[in-house]
Write a structure and sequence with these properties.
By secondary structure, the chain is mostly beta strands. It has strands at residues 2-6, 10-11, 17-24, 34-40, 47-53, 58-60, 68-73, 78-83, 92-99, 104-105, 109-113. Strands 2, 4, 5, 6, 9, 10 and 11 form a seven-stranded mixed beta sheet that branches. A four-stranded antiparallel beta sheet has the order 1-3-8-7, with no helix packed on it. The termini are far apart.
């Protein structure tokens, strides 16, 4: 299974960050799989943001739940992330992750929040 993140590398403060993860070699509806978004700010550890499971149930980090939306497009075998009202603290490498127990990782995409 391969995952590939895509989206803008630069977002202005107060705007919405939007990323897409395209999955190949597997299905976003595969049994017992979950699909997550994880980010890593510079010099800091990994932060779990949210996930969507096989049945389409969605889970969000409590610290982000007022601003985050995760969805999937089964026809395109993709899942997406939207994070509204971003600040410079949202600058990070964003990873899409999937499978059982975070088995598969995308290469990560750098997103910088700056005016």
């Amino acid at each position: 299974v391969q995952l590939q993140e895509s989206g803008p590398g630069l977002v202005k403060p107060s705007q919405t960050l939007s990323l897409t993860c395209t999955v190949s070699g597997g299905s976003v509806t595969a049994t017992n799989y979950a699909w997550d978004w994880i980010r890593q700010p510079p010099g800091k550890g990994l932060e779990w943001m949210g996930a969507i499971n096989t049945r389409g149930r969605i889970f969000y980090s409590s610290s982000l739940k007022s601003r985050i939306t995760i969805a999937r497009d089964t026809s395109k075998n993709q899942f997406t992330l939207q994070l509204s009202s971003v600040t410079p603290e949202g600058t990070a490498v964003y990873y899409c992750v999937g499978g059982e127990a975070y088995a598969y990782w995308g290469q990560g995409t750098q997103v910088t929040v700056s005016s």
